[in-house]
UniProtKB/TrEMBL annotation:
Entry-linked SUPFAM superfamilies: FAD/NAD(P)-binding domain (SSF51905)
GO biological process: response to hormone; sterol biosynthetic process
Function: Catalyzes the stereospecific oxidation of squalene to (S)-2,3-epoxysqualene, and is considered to be a rate-limiting enzyme in steroid biosynthesis.
GO molecular function: flavin adenine dinucleotide binding; squalene monooxygenase activity
Reaction catalysed by this enzyme: squalene + reduced [NADPH--hemoprotein reductase] + O2 = (S)-2,3-epoxysqualene + oxidized [NADPH--hemoprotein reductase] + H2O + H(+)
Biological or metabolic pathway of the protein: Terpene metabolism; lanosterol biosynthesis; lanosterol from farnesyl diphosphate: step 2/3
Residue stretches making up the FAD dependent oxidoreductase domain: 132-162
Native organism taxonomy: Eukaryota, Viridiplantae, Streptophyta, Embryophyta, Tracheophyta
Pfam families cross-referenced by the UniProt entry: DAO (PF01266), SE (PF08491)
Protein name per Swiss-Prot or TrEMBL: Squalene monooxygenase
């Protein structure tokens, strides 16, 4: 009898099993520590079994392999066939596992570009499991949000149309309240090393008079102040910081649509510069931050966009503003002119032109308007630099939009930043609102570990719409109301109100610190806003009654109160009275964390 001992087969089987587990472990370890533990257990078990088999094989070899005793097992053919099948099965398993690991690691390096439908659908399936939040747009709101959610451990996919540094005239003065939010988000270093300037308050100019309004910063750390800078530099810093997080993926691409399924937003469709194909990305939450010209907001809110005016932007070089480290507001004719430093050598000038239509730049009408009508109104210290900037010709325009937040609660998506809510930029409140919103959202999402919990997510998003209101609405209402008060008018009541506003702010004490605390975002209290607004109106009326009231002054006083009410109440109504003044009466804000 011949003895045939097939002792290598079990060892091979174990080795290949171990190899497969080990390679899948390498991938899984990358993905989750839970899987690592499970995989390690398998490996330990595999090794123990391997040792056991080795010992058995050696023992059986020792016992059976005597040169003379050769035992042919009666089931040898069956066992051989079974082992062969097992071998083929394991080989196939091993190959397919390796292929999938190759595909996945290829994706992890971010090199997967859709070449055909198969790859796209692979990408879709992969993304469905690997992204918690998609952010559309990496401007002020999107970049700050990406870093914030990334730091919270969320896997974030940001899709931004243009990742290069932008040269824009928007978002260049961050109020101290906004800077405090930046600190809360851990992003304060993004205003460092960009030649940002500290801003300590405002100077108001009217008909040759001026008044200085300092931010009420006495109770804050010396670092707290406003910051002014090039918007592009600031945004780029935030993008860079977000990109340092391994769980934040920043991709250049233009989102073309939101993907909806049974009323739930499942993700986005987008196009990259390199690929002609439309790509898709899926996540349980999509946050749209595509700015003031948003194409995607329509399904997520009821946009009522108003364009009260247009800002014409210039950069003034090598000049000193009358008040260093201050924003300057000239109560000009027909509307305000803003000036503030954006670097150690440059001053931004924004000239407000009421309405949507501005004099054309190309045919020189704009330059003419700026030189003949605006230049005489800017402070003498910067007039020469203003004319030089007009001559240089780098004139930009931007419509000033206002849009109250009016969300359509939708499963799986929300809007943020200017896509969601806009106000006149006169008071420089947009970035403060966006950053304050991010703080509210971060805190609300924190207890929801699984964003696939659709119901919990939707409830917290509903709470977000209420919780953000008092701060956002105060800043929005102030901007809208102040712009209307600061407009030059032929209406006597409005002219009185404008004059009284300047004089009220010049009184000092609480009359200036109160409104400036509102404007700076340091105390965005709706009640304080209404009180100061009507205090200005009453101050205007009171002055008319002195030294003796007359029928004419009574009549004018009544018109002032009516005009003041006509300015502020429609804005408050659009913002939502209950959410703005009585948010605590809305049940959504008492939401307990999900179990
Ligand atoms: C003239 C002007 C001056 C202003 N000055 C100030 C100021 O001094 N202080 C202040 O606080 N606020 C100011 N604001 C408001 C402020 O600029 C905004 O509130 C702020 O920029 C909003 O940030 P955001 O991220 O929503 O939008 P943005 O900063 O505009 O970012 C939107 C981003 O989305 C990207 N994007 C758009 N569409 C797509 C798409 N389909 N796919 C992918 N990406 C897309 C864009 O490329 C962009 O990067 C000003 C506004 C204006 C109009």
């Amino acid at each position: 009898m011949k003895s045939i001992v097939i002792k290598n087969l079990p060892q091979f089987q174990l080795a290949s099993t171990t190899t497969t587990l080990r390679s899948s472990l390498l991938y899984k370890n990358h993905c989750s520590s839970l899987r690592f533990t499970t995989g390690a257990k398998y490996i330990r078990r595999g090794k123990a079994a391997e040792e056991r088999h080795k010992r058995i094989a050696i023992t059986s070899t020792k016992t059976m392999m005597t040169p003379t005793t050769i035992v042919l097992d009666q089931f040898i053919t069956g066992k051989f066939l079974a082992s062969l099948i097992a071998f083929v099965f394991l080989y196939v398993l091993c190959r397919s596992s390796n292929d999938s690991i190759k595909n996945r690691s290829k994706k992890n390096r971010g090199h997967v570009i859709a070449q055909n439908d198969v790859v796209v659908s692979n990408l879709v399936t992969e993304d469905e499991f690997s992204t918690d939040v998609i952010i559309v747009g990496a401007g002020v709101a999107g970049a700050a949000l990406a870093y914030t959610l990334g730091k919270e451990g969320r896997r974030v996919h940001v899709i931004e149309r243009d990742l290069s540094e932008q040269d824009r005239i928007v978002g260049e003065l961050l109020q101290p309240g906004g800077y405090l939010k930046l600190i809360e988000l851990g992003l304060e270093d993004c205003v460092k090393k960009i030649d940002a300037q500290r801003v300590l308050g405002y100077a108001l100019f009217k008909d040759g008079k001026h008044t200085k309004l300092s931010y009420p910063l006495e109770t804050f750390d010396s670092d707290i102040a406003g910051r002014s800078f090039h918007n592009g530099r600031f945004v780029q810093k935030m993008r860079e910081k977000a990109a340092t997080l391994s769980n934040v993926r920043l991709e250049q691409g233009t989102v073309t649509s939101l993907l909806e399924e049974n009323g739930t937003i499942k993700g986005v469709q987008y196009r990259t510069k390199q690929g002609n194909n439309e790509l898709r990305s899926y996540a349980p939450l999509t946050i749209v931050c595509d700015g003031c010209f948003s194409n995607l907001r329509r399904t997520l809110c009821k946009p009522k966009v108003d364009v009260p005016s247009t800002f014409v932007g210039l950069v003034l070089e090598n000049c000193e503003l009358p008040f260093a480290n201050h924003g300057h507001v000239v109560l000009g004719d027909p509307s305000p002119i803003l000036l503030y430093p954006i670097s150690s050598t440059e001053v931004r000038c924004l000239v407000d032109v009421p309405g949507r239509k501005v004099p054309p730049i190309a045919n020189g009408e704009m330059a003419k308007y700026l030189k003949t009508h605006v230049a005489p109104q800017v402070p003498t210290e910067v007039r020469e630099a203003f004319i030089a900037a007009v001559d240089k010709g780098n004139i930009k325009t931007m419509p000033n939009r206002s849009m109250p937040a009016d969300p359509v609660p939708t499963h799986g998506a929300l809007l943020l930043g200017d896509a969601f809510n806009m106000r006149h930029p006169l008071t420089g409140g947009g970035m403060t609102v966006a950053l304050a919103d991010i703080v509210v959202l971060r805190d609300l999402l924190r207890p929801i570990r699984n964003l696939n919990d659709k119901e919990a997510l939707s409830k917290y998003i509903e709470s977000f719409y209420t919780l953000r209101k008092p701060v956002a609405s105060t800043i929005n209402t102030l901007a809208g109301a102040l712009y209307k008060v600061f407009l030059a008018s032929t209406d006597e009541a409005k002219t009185e109100m404008r004059e009284a506003c300047f004089d009220y702010l010049s009184l000092g004490g609480v009359c200036s610190s109160g409104p400036v605390a509102l404007l700076s975002g340091l105390n965005p209290s709706p009640l304080s806003l209404v009180l100061h607004f009507f205090a200005v109106a009453i101050y205007a009326v009171g002055r008319l009654m002195l030294p003796f009231p007359s029928i004419k002054s009574f009549w004018l006083g009544a018109r002032i109160i009516s005009s003041a009410s006509g300015i502020i109440f429609p804005i408050i109504k659009a913002e939502g009275v209950r959410k703005m003044f009585f948010p605590s009466t809305i049940a959504a804000i008492y939401r307990a964390p999900p179990q």
